[in-house]
Amino acid sequence: MAIIYNEELKTFSLHTKNSSYQMKIGKLNYLYHLYYGPSMRDEDLSYQIMQYDRGFSGNPYEARNQRIFSLDALPQEFSTLQQGDFRISSIEVSNGDGSYSFNGRVKSFKIYDEKYELKTLPASFSTDKDHVQSLEIVLEDEITKVEVVLLYSVFEEAEIITRSAKVINGGSESIHLRKIMSMCLDFMNGSDLEVLHLPGRYGQERQVERQRLTHQIHTISSGRGSSSHQQNPFVILCNKDTRENAGICYGTALVYSGNFVAEIELDQYDQVRMLMGINNKQFDFELKPGEEFEAPEVLMGFTDKGFTGLSHMYHDFFRNNMCKSKFVHEYRPILINTWEATFFTFDDVKLVEIAKAAKKMGVELMVMDDGWFGKRDDDNSGLGDWYVNTNKIKCGLNNLVEQINDIGLKFGIWFEPEMVSEDSDLYRAHPDWAMQIPGRPAVRSRNQLVLDLTRKDVQDYLIESVNKILDSANIFYAKWDVNRSITDIFSTELPGNRQGEVYHRYILGLYRILDGIVKTHPNILFEGCSGGGGRYDPGMLTYFPQYWNSDNTKPIDNLKLHYGTSFLYPICTMGAHVSEANPNIPISTKGTVAMCGTFGYELDATKLTAKKIKECKRVSKLYKKYYPIIFYGDYYRLTNPFVPGNLTAWSSVTKNKEEALISVVVTNLTVNGPQEYIRARGLNPDWKYYIDILDQAVSGSVLMHVGIPIPREVPEYTSYQYHLKHVRK
Ligand code: GLA
Q: pLDDT tens, 297-338?
């Protein structure tokens, strides 16, 4: 049983294969959080709680003069508001009478045998192979009748506990939600904890930072209307000695694509509280009597096997339980994208020429990027007009696709549905569809405005116009881009006092549009994009099996990008292309790096020399050869590119450990330096592996202990792909 309620002890114990989580209905029916860590039996872990008279920590009224009973010093599963707990709160609700108070106590609960469902937001799902149980605990404020329903699903084999919360206004007056967290995770003593997260910027997304907790509130958040380049909705709490192959870590990933926040407070008594959910920046959601609000799902994972163990759990979970697209499990063809080849200057003839040249490189899919629609000769116009520009695509889309298909390539197309240019037919017809604050000219970014996705008419227009294009030709692939952060938060559809709902309603509108386009086209391979990897988040990955990692295609920068991204996201989701950036780096190395993702090219194939075409063909062939290892295997970070060194290395090992691919890039060469070795990971120590480059068989234990010697008298930026294969006697 994954979830056990012990009547006598009043404990809820949640068990995955190797981890356990415990809560207890405590005094006055408050719900305590007692444990999250390695597997335990169903013992009562409240023995850890020591109570003292803590000055300036309030006592609930019913506790009367029991000065040792304070919520400020008790571990809580979902913290209250204005009840004497002064730490960061899980909820902020303004009640009908204007008071800010929520005194949630356990009213009821139920346990059932399937994954809970969210009606308005994307979430993970279970398959026939999973054992999943769910638990719902209702916390009620007896005075206001506001309820918070805590939702949990335990994926036993996957080692993931998903969590969400639902607020129901059971009272007779409207309330305003000002903050609602999806997850509250308390630690009775967390002074040893550190936080690891993935900050970044345009062109350098998901870098890795790790900090010691100090006595303050650490905030990791985005308030840009999307999960953003700058932060990612993923945080790891780990011990100070946690490393790749050992140590404890708690992963928390929010399945949401809008503003988010993770707050971690190390308080006066070294208690740690971590919250995660929708960012409460300009957030004020009205709930009328009887209405409910769903908070996005958090994917929680615990392991004592270090960062690699945690990444493997999430990688498998994304592959099996997050993305609904069939392409997660299917071969992703090698693509060529026209963006860096032509930018806005192309026509149908040029595209056909690129396709012909690309075919010789082993390319299987051609993607027509920005510039094919409306009046779009640069990035100042045309967004919103999703019809073919016949000055460029003179033969018509269907005919163009047929020509590309005849060459032997599949066809893909680019959209940026959420945006509008002022110089567009759409804006001229519906200026009120763009988000603008009345009386104030809107902030431009890339000279474009943001459509008000909270409006149903805008949602319907986008579903219809994008679907019309997708259905008009044999389209295999579509790239969904979004190229600015959101400002001018205002919807003409909502009254003045409900503008605090716009950020969230935008995302709800986006998910409805994606439901109407992505889910209705199960045979189209969608790739997400936001000026590179700006909205690369778990919410988006429920729709898109792959995401463009970054507009930065420089291979050496990509070593860091892949490293950081891989903490949460599997390789099969990372768009990675060989481009003309860094002309002095050989194509073989660019290929090695781009094979750490959904491989493709981002260049003008018609301009490549015959020698380069041949080299690309060789690299494309390797990608196809190694595809099953890279896409379905376990990924290992073998070096940390953020630590200065001479080599960056990573590997993939098939689940049955029969084969592995170790990739190494020489990023620097110290003169007359020491011989360096890359140690393998994840092999079967008792097997012998044949290594193609060395033409020798070496045992797994030696490869993991001693490693492979990497030649040093080589040009800088040389790369190696060592293919290891189990030698059967
Ligand atoms: C963004 C994307 C690029 C390209 C351009 C087109 O920057 O990340 O790949 O599609 O938009 O405008």
A: 999 999 999 999 999 999 999 999 999 999 999 999 999 999
Give the count of alpha carbons within 13 A of 711, CB side only. Answer: 12
Does the model's pTM come out above 0.85?
yes
What are the backbone angles phi and psi of residue 505, rounded to the nearest 5°?
-65, -30
> How far apart are the CA of 529 and the centre of ligand 1, in A?
8
Contact 615, 650 (CB under 8 A): no
Residue nearest to atom 7 of ligand 1 (CA): 531
Let me know if 128 is a catalytic residue. Answer: no
According to DSSP H, which parts of 109-237 are helical?
A: none
Helix or strand holding residue 690 (H, E): strand 688-691
Q: 678 burial class (0-12, 13-18, 19+ CB within 10 angstroms)?
A: buried
Task: Determine whether the shortest distance from the Cβ of 159 to ligand 1 is under 6 A.
Answer: no
- pLDDT, averaged across the chain: 97
Whole-number pLDDT of residue 51: 95
Q: Considering the candidates 186, 316, 481, 537, report the single residue annotated as catalytic.
A: 481
Report how far ligand 1's centroid is from the alpha carbon of 575 (Å): 13
Helix (H, G, I), strand (E, B) or coil at 559: helix
| pLDDT score at 451 | 98
How far is the CA of 14 from the CAs of 5, 27, 40, 156, 249, in angstroms?
Answer: 9, 21, 10, 9, 18
Q: pLDDT, tens digit, for every residue of 248-278?
A: 999 999 999 999 999 999 999 999 999 999 9
| Mean pLDDT, rounded, for 339-351 | 97
CB atoms inside a 10 Å sphere around CB 403:
18
Residue 469 Cβ < 6 Å to ligand 1: no
Q: What are the structural domains, with CATH classification, of the chain?
A: 3-321 (2.70.98.60), 332-492+521-628 (3.20.20.70), 647-726 (2.60.40.1180)
Report how far residue 535's alpha carbon sits from residue 590's, in angstroms, rounded to the nearest whole number. Answer: 25
In contact, 156 and 16? CB cutoff 8 Å: yes
- 3-state SS class at 701: helix
- Catalytic: 471? no
Which among 72, 85, 551, 604 is annotated as catalytic?
551
Burial class (CB in 10 A: 0-12, 13-18, 19+), 199: middle
Tokens standing for residue 33: 């959080």
Does the beta carbon of 531 sit less than 6 angstroms from any atom of ligand 1?
A: yes
Mean pLDDT of 465-481: 98
Cα–Cα–Cα angle for 560, 322, 187, rounded to 5 degrees:
75
Contact of 364 with 335, CB cutoff 8 Å: yes
Ligand 1 pocket test: which of 229, 346, 369 has the largest number of ligand atoms within 8 Å of its C-beta? 369
Answer whether residue 42 shows pLDDT above 90: no
